[in-house]
Design a protein that fits this description.
The protein is mostly helical and about 130 residues long. The chain has helices at about 1-10, 15-35, 50-65, 70-90, 100-130. Helix 2 runs antiparallel to helix 3 (about 50-65).
Length: about 130
């Protein structure tokens, strides 16, 4: 997957370095936001799972661009650990709660990225060879 992705989006090492910094900054911001009290007037509770899927889709995309490491052996476990870490921390914050459904939504975002990436890359490979 990385070889084709690299051909589609050639990223220089310096750019990868900045993408790693961006990933770390966004992960830190996500951690802060995840531990803040939610304002129920914003309707955030209704969109919570969609936000989880979207955020982890974005994290997976950014991490895939930032590193050449294996998706299933390194990237997905790192992202799942991050999601689990947030849920564990939320168990200790009185205004938030630990939720296995949130962790499942995180995993769905990661899986959605992988599936879409595979579909798009398969189309590119078929187009190049056909």
């Amino acid at each position: 997957m990385h070889a084709i992705l690299s051909r589609l989006l050639p990223i220089r090492p310096r750019t990868r370095k900045w993408l790693k910094y961006l990933f770390l900054c966004l992960a830190a911001i996500g951690l802060v936001v995840a531990l803040m009290p939610m304002d129920e007037r914003l309707g955030a509770h209704n969109l919570d799972k969609l936000w989880h899927v979207s955020a982890f889709f974005g994290y997976a995309l950014l991490l895939a661009l930032a590193t050449r490491r294996s998706f299933w052996h390194w990237q997905a476990p790192v992202l799942l650990f991050y999601g689990a870490f947030i849920e564990i921390l939320q168990a200790f914050v009185p205004w938030r709660s630990c939720s296995l459904a949130d962790l499942l939504a995180d995993a769905c975002g990661i899986l959605l990225f992988w599936v879409l990436c595979k579909i798009l890359l398969k189309g590119v490979v078929l187009h190049e060879t056909g």
